Amino acid sequence: MNLLTLHRDEARHAFFEERSSSAPFFDAAMGCWIVANPRHIEQLLQEPSLGPADYAGPYEQLTQKRGLQFPNIQFASRHLPFCLEGAEHQQSRRRIAGHLSSRRAMVIEEMQDFVDTAISVLDRGRKVELMGDVISPLVLHAFRSMAESPFMHSGDFAASSAFFDRMLGPKKRLQLESKLGAIRSELRGSVDKISENEEGVRLTLFLAGYETLIGTLGESVYSVLRQHQAAKLCDVPFPDFPPQTGVPFIERRVAESFEFAGVLPSAGERLRFYLQALTYGDAPKAGIFGFGSRTCLGKQLSLEAWRIVTGALMRTPKRFRILEYEVRSDNYVFTCPKALLLETH
Ligand code: HEM
Fold this sequence. Notes:
Layout: H1 12-19, E1 25-27, E2 32-35, H2 38-44, E3 50-52, H3 57-66, H4 71-79, H5 86-123, E4 127-129, H6 130-147, H7 154-157, H8 159-164, H9 170-190, H10 196-225, E5 249-254, E6 270-274, H11 299-314, E7 320-327, E8 337-344
Parallel strand pairs: 2-6
Antiparallel strand pairs: 1-2, 3-5, 4-8, 5-6, 7-8
Helix pairs in contact: 4-9, 4-10, 5-6, 5-10, 5-11, 6-10
Bound molecules: protoporphyrin IX containing FE.
The site of protoporphyrin IX containing FE has 26 residues, from helix 5, helix 10 and helix 11.
């Protein structure tokens, strides 16, 4: 079993079924503990002995060993809640939550208008590539509006999975550094007299929300449609909650050794939590947005986006057929369809 690509492998279904009641186990190839039991995921994500994953560490090593400089990564690690702990983490969350609540109503209204127009291609009876024609542009539009940065382009957002990818080589890490630099200068050019904290909030939104939302909407729409091939879109029973996730796993680092379910993770070791396991059977599905003090701040907006996209599909009295579905194979962090081509008639 290759755990590096498990999240997009058909073999994952058998893996999650087999592991649904197992204890965490250490995988030597991945160099970390694997947690795929939904009950353990929920309990452990609230375990105080676990701290955030070490996203900045590999960059610090490159600076020490090779003299490479990463000022934008350093900026991100001072502002992203994923990298912070204690009071700093809470303050960062408060700033992000405040920004989101001030923009949410407007962003939802804009998403609704955008989808109504984009989805009208289905009424004309033709092929539509849902990812490229509807979902990705919708999320790009929403994030530009949320960050008040109208000229941000989709290439800038590819930084998102790279930030969370611990397998990147030095060249890709340098590319990410310059991408973050480009996003930051775009932000400074768009928002008058932007403070460092305001810049940090917007950078967090891009890195945390853009690819995750595109992936979750795409994977969830596909998983429902594939079960209703040849039905009318208006008859497809889309659930209220997205049934799949674009965030297949998250990680933590052990701050202090502790015992759990007969195993002993030691200080400094990593744990990988397969949130994808929560999409099966009666697992707590809301957990795809995390548990405990680091729960997703974009959950409400994501559920609105799901409601808007599926609502528009369910207003379409056309039969559909899936002509093509392909999952992105260049992404080792998030799951996201590369293409979801429908034919309607
Ligand atoms: C449907 C798509 C999304 C999914 C599945 C998702 C999932 C998650 C998960 C699992 C976490 C917890 C990470 C952890 O515990 O390490 C998280 C955190 C977070 N999410 Fe989301 N997310 C989504 C969309 C968004 C959006 C659209 C935004 C912003 C608008 C956002 C902002 C955040 C932030 C700021 C955190 C950090 C919380 C912290 O570390 O304290 N997310 N998300």
